Amino acid sequence: MINILLHIAVLLLLPPLLLGVITKTKAWFGGRVGAPLLQPYYDLVKLMRRGLVLSTTTTWVFRAGPVVTLATVLLAGLLIPIGGFDAPIAFTGDLILFAYLFGLARFFTTSAALDTGSAFEGMGSAREVTFACLSEPALFFALMVLAKVSGSLTLTAMLHGPANTFSADVAAPLVLISIGLFIVLLAETCRLPVDDPTTHLELTMIHEAMVLDHGGPLLSVILYAASIKLLVLGTVLLHVIAPFEFGKAWLDWPLYLVEILGLAGIIGVLESVMARLQMRHVPYLLIGALLFCGFGFILLIR
Amino acid sequence: MNVMFLMLMAVVLLGLSGVPACLLSARSAVGQRVAAALMLAGSLLGLAGVAAALCAAEAPSLSWAWGFQQSRFAVAADPISALFLLPVFIVPALGSVYGLEYWKQAEHPANGRRLGLAYGMLAGAMALVVIARDGVLFLIAWEVMALAAYFAATAEDDKPEVRRAGWIYLIATHVGTLCLLALFARWRHATGAFALEAGQALPAEAATALFLLALIGFGFKAGLMPLHVWLPGAHANAPSHVSAVMSGVMLKMGIYGIVRMTALLPSGAAWWGPALLTAGAVSSVAGIAFAIGQRDLKRILAYSSIENIGIIAMGLGLALLGRSLGHADWVLLGLGGALLHVWNHSLFKSLLFFNAGAVIHAAHTREIDQMGGLAKQLPRVMALFAVGAVAICALPPLNGFAGEWLLYLGLFRTMGLGAETGAPAAALAAVALAMTGALAVACFVKVLGTVFLGAPRRAEAPHAHEPGPAMLAPMLVLACGCVGLGLFPLLATPLLEAAVRTWSARPGPMSVAAVVPLQTLTAAGLALAGLVAVLALVLKLTRRAGRVRAGLTWDCGYARPTGRMQYTGSSLGDSLVNLTSFLLWPKKCRTALRGYFPRPSAFKSLVPDTVLDRLVTPLFRATGRHLPRLRVLQQGQTHVYVLYILIVMIVLLIWGNVGS
To answer: Are residues B193 and B322 both part of a single domain?
Structure first.
C-alpha cells in the first residue's frame, strides 16, 4: 500500500525535476549557472495562474488536447512498475493499452494543434504523426522482446523480466532494444537530436510548434504532461538498462531516484554535445531504432 | 413456427422494400417512407429471428428440394451466420432512414426509385448469402447482391466517373464470381453435392484448391490488397448511405465467405494461416498508406476499409495457424478478434460514411483540401465524426481497441511465452498492426483536422447547416454502439465464443475471459473517461472566468491570417507519402520557378492506385491493342454469345464422352 502511494507520489511530483536536471546539466556544460533545479515547478505554478487567450478559430478540441494528454500519461504511468515495485494497475495485455494510450494522446495533441488553423502547428502535427509511424513499430518490437524474455504479457512482469530471468542468451537482444528504446524515448519526448525544446524557430520544431497557441493553464498542463511522459518512458528504459533491485523498499526507492535523475543527466549531456538533426534525417534515426529493436527480436527468436 | 421462416420473411421484406415506391410517382416522398418502414420492419423481424436462433438449443435450419440436381433450397442460422446477420439487419435499415433526408425522392426523381429498389435488394440478398447452406442458392444470392450493389452504387450514372467506377466494380465482382463458380463446382465434385455441410472427407489437393479459390473469389469482394481495385472508386462515387452499406456490410460478405469455407474445410496445410496473415498485413499497411495519400474524403474512407479488412484477415490467418498447430487459444483470440472487428468496422465505418455524406451536403465537394472549419457549422456531425475517428484508429476506450487488443494478444502468444512452443514469425504481424495503428492516427487526424478544424479554406462561405434528425439519429445510434461495445466488450463474447466453437468444430467450452481479462478493459476505459472528466473539471475550476480572452491565432505574430495559409490535408500527409513512395508512387507536377520575380505557378500532387492505374488498366489496354483479331468473336449480339455457350457445351460433352 505504501509503495502504491509512493508510486503515485513519484509519478505526480517528480517529473518536473527531471526537466530541471536536464536544464542544469546543459547550463553546467555551457559554463553557466543556469536556472534553479526547481524552476520547472515555479513555471508550472506561474502558468496555472496566468490568463488564457483562445483563438477564435478553435473549438472544444483545442482544450481537450492537453486534458486528454495528461489523463493518458497519468494512466500510462499507473500501468508501469517503478523501480523494484509492481505497478498499481496490472493485467494481462496492459502493454497494448500502454502503447495505445500514447496514440490517444497523439490523436488529441495533433488535432488540437490543427484546430488553430496555423501552418506552423500543421507542420508540427505532420511531423509528430509521421515520426510516430516509425517509433511505434520499434516500441512493439521492444515489447515483444520483453514479453518473450519474461514469458508474460503483463507490463509488471515484462519489465521485471530483465532483472528476474536474466541469462546470457537474452543479453544481446536486451542491449539492442535498449538502444532502440532510448531513441524512441528521445523522439517521443521531443528531445535532441530529434526535436529541440529550447529553440525559438517554429519551422524547425515538432512538439513546441504544436503548442504555440496554447497558453496559461493549458500550456502548464501540456508541459506537465510532457515531463510525466519523460518519466514514464525513462522508467521503462531503466528496467532494461539498469535492472538492479535490492529487494528492500527503503533501498529500492532511493536507487530508483538516483537512476532516473542520472538518466535525466545523461539526456542533458547528450543535448549539450549534439546538434539537432536535419528534419529530413530524423526518419533515418527512427528507422535505425526500428532496426535495432527488430534485430533484437530476431536474435531472440532465432 | 420455424425460426428460419422469420428470417426468410425478413429477407423478402428487405429485398422487396423498394417495390411500392416504383408504383408511385417519381417525386413522391411516400414511396421512400414506405421503403424505409419496410426496411425497418424487415430488420426488426430479422433481429427477432437472430435472437430466437441464438436462444435455440440447436441451430435452426430449413431444407426444400427445388429442382436443381444435387442441390436443395437449404438455409440455416448457426452462430457464425447470426454474427454476420446483425450488421446486415442493422446498418442498411439505418441507412434507409438516413436516405430519407440524404437522398430525397423529390430531389432525385431520375434515380431515386431505382436506388431504393437496388438498395433493398442488396440488403435482402446479403441476408440470404449469410443463411444459405447450398452452393447454388449461395451463388444466386451472391450474384443478386453483386448486381444490386452495382445498381445502387451507380445511381448517378449521368456522371462519367460514376460509370467508370461502376464498370470496374462489375468486372472485378464477376472475376470474383467466376472463382466462386469454380469453387462450388469443385466442392460438388469433391463431396458429391452442393450442400455446404462440415465434416466432409476431402483429399488434400482438393482442400488446397478450394481454399485458394475461396481466398481469391471472396478476396475480391472483401477487397484484400491486390484484389481491391474496384473498391475506392465504387465507394467514392456511390451515394453515402450506399457506401456505408457497401463498406460496412457488403465487404464483410467476402470475409463471411472465407470464414464459412475455412470452417467447412478440414484443418488443411500449415501455410494457409501464414498466407492469410501476410495478405492481411500487406492489406492493412498498404491500405492505410494509400488512404493518407488521398484528398477525396470518401476515397480515404474506402482505402481505410481495405486496411480494416486486412486487420480482419490477420485475425483469420492467426486462427487458421492456431488450428493447424493445435493452439486453441490462438484460434479463440484470432477468430474472436477478427469477428469482433467485423462488428466494429461495420459500426464505425458506416458512421464515418454517414458523416461524410453530411459533410458533402454541407460543403458541396468531396475534396478535403477545399474544406475546413466545418466544426463551427456542424458541431454535432463533428463530434460524431470524432467518435468514429477515435474508434477506427483503435484507440482506447472505444470499440476498435477492444477488437485489436484481442488480436494483439493472440499475435503475442504466437511467440511461445514461457514453456509453450510457438511460431514466432507470426508475431511480426503484431508489428505490422502497430504500424497500421500509427498510420491510421495520421490519416484520421488529417481528415478531422482538414475537414472540421481550423478556418474555412474557401472564401465564399457555403450555406452549410447541420443535418436534420433523419440523418443524425442513425449516426447517433452507431456512435453509441462504438462507445458501448468499447466500454463493455464482454457483451459480445457469448456470441463470439459460440461462433469460434462452431468454426473450430469443438464442442468443449471456450471462454475469452478465461484466456484474457476482457473485463478489465471496462475498468480501464471507465478510469480513462473518469480521469479526463476530473481533469477537465479541475481545469475549468482553476480558470477564472474573466481571464479568458478570445483572439486571433498567434501564427508568429502575423495579423492577417487567411484560411488558405493553413496546412492542407495533402501537406499534412506529404512526409508520409514520401516515406511510403516505394508503394504509392505519387505523381507530382511542379513547374520550375525562374528569375527573381517568378510568374504564378502551380503544383499538383496525386496518389493514383498502384494496382489499378499502373498495372490493371495498362494490362487491359495492351490486351486490347495487341489482340484486335479476337474482336471478331465479340460483336455485341447476345444470341451469338448464347451460340458460343452452346458450342462450348457440345464440345465439352463430346470430350467427356470420348474421355470416358
So the answer is: no
Task: Say which of A54, A75, A126 has its CB closest to residue B571.
Answer: A126
Res B280 pLDDT > 60: yes
User: What local confidence, expressed as pLDDT, does residue A201 receive?
Assistant: 65
For B198-222, what is the mean pLDDT?
89
Residue B207: inside a domain, yes or no? Answer: no
> Residue B462's pLDDT is what?
61
SS3 at position B367:
strand
Q: B614 and B638 in one domain?
A: no
The residue of chain A with its CA nearest to that of B565 is A119
Q: Which chain B residue is nearest to residue A73, measuring alpha carbons?
A: B528
**A298 Cβ contact list (under 8 Å, min separation 6):** none
ipTM of the complex: 0.95
Cα dihedral B529/B530/B531/B534 (nearest 10):
130
pLDDT at B267: 78
Q: How many CB pairs under 8 A join A and B?
A: 243
B454 with A117: Cβ contact below 8 A: yes
The cell numbers describing B114, all together, are 431505382
Mean pLDDT of B23-32: 87
Q: Average pLDDT of A97-117?
A: 94
Half-sphere exposure of B456 (CA within 13 A, CB side): 13
Q: What is the DSSP string of B191-232?
A: HSSSB--S-----HHHHHHHHHHHHHHHHHHHT-GGG-TTHH
Give residue B200's pLDDT band: very low, low, confident or very high (50, 70, 90): confident
A200: pLDDT strictly greater than 70: no
Q: Are B396 and A100 within 8 A, CB to CB? A: yes
Does residue B210 belong to any structural domain of this protein? Answer: no
Count of domains observed in chain B: 4
Q: Is B150 a residue whose pLDDT tops 90?
A: yes
Chain B residues whose CB is inside 8 A of the A67 CB are 532, 535-536, 539
- Could you say which residues from 232 to 291 on chain A have a Cβ atom under 8 Å away from some Cβ of chain B? 283
Residues 136-155 of A with CB under 8 A from B: 136-137, 139-141, 144, 147-148, 151-153
Q: What's the grid cell of residue B161?
A: 466517373
pLDDT > 70 in chain B, percent: 98
**Chain B contact set for A68 (CB, 8 A):** 532
Cβ B377 vs Cβ B466: under 8 Å:
yes
- Residue B454 DSSP code: S
Q: What is the pLDDT of residues A273-298, one digit of tens each?
A: 988 888 888 999 999 999 999 999 99
Cα angle B73, B74, B79 (rounded to 5 degrees) comes to 155
Residues of B in contact with A72 (CB under 8 A): 528
The amino acid present at A41, given as its one-letter code, is Y
Which pLDDT score is estimated for B505?
A: 79
Q: Please give the model's pTM, rounded to 2 decimal places.
A: 0.95
* Nine cell digits for residue A151: 514469458
The answer to whether residue B414 sits within a structural domain is yes
Inside any domain, residue B327: yes
Looking at the DSSP assignment, which residues form a beta bridge with residue B603?
A: B590
Give chain A positions within 8 Å (CB) of B424: 148, 301
H-helix or E-strand containing B234? Answer: helix B231-237
Q: Which domain holds residue B610?
A: 585-591+600-626
Residues of B in contact with A151 (CB under 8 A): 417-419
pLDDT tens sequence across B52-73: 998 888 888 888 888 888 888 9
Which has the higher per-residue pLDDT, B443 or B612? Answer: B443
Q: Is B462 on the interface with A (CB under 8 A)?
A: no
